[in-house]
Amino acid sequence: MKAKKLSAILLAFCLGTGGIAGCGTEDKGKTTEKEAESTATQEDNKDNQETEKEENKEEAPKEEKETSSIPAENGKAIIYSPNENADGYNKQEMDFEEVSPGMIIGQMVGDGTLPDSVVVQNFEEVDNEGESALRLDLSSGFGEYVQSMGTAGEDMTMGSLVNTFLDTYGVSSIEILVDGEAFSTGHSEYSGFLSRYE
């Protein structure tokens, strides 16, 4: 009888311990599954954040900072580009609701006058000896591009840029800067205001 009681107690003890251990294992399994899901979600979120940061980095250099909105005459942009012989200019008048320096540079990139590395960093209306003038600050991509050219190519590129902004904004002079400073090439120094190229 003692043996039956002892066997029953031992059996109850084993079943109780096994049940508890089994429950504990089940809970641990559920916790592990929840932890795995949580970890996977955190990793996905981290990947998404890194992707967004990379996309923002790629877009950042193309930002345009215009300090003032200078209206173009009649919502028209007059875009100059070198002709085939590099001895004159093609002139194209374009209508837009709103003309901006970035839009103008974009048109000049599109027609091959400028490379896509050129970005407007600042644009403002300034005074030049009592007359309204423009100051256009471009990225280093512009300086590098112009410095890589021969004399004729440099003159045609500078003429296209200067004439485009003078005609579009109806002023007689413009100062072109690269990274906020005057620049020079092996052929010319560009410090101060420039007038129309013929």
From TrEMBL:
Protein name: Sporulation and spore germination
Bias (Basic and acidic residues): 25-67
Annotated segments matching region Disordered: 18-88
Segment forming the signal sequence: 1-21
Keyword tags: Signal
InterPro entries: GerMN
Species of provenance: Lactonifactor longoviformis DSM 17459
Residues annotated as domain GerMN: 101-187
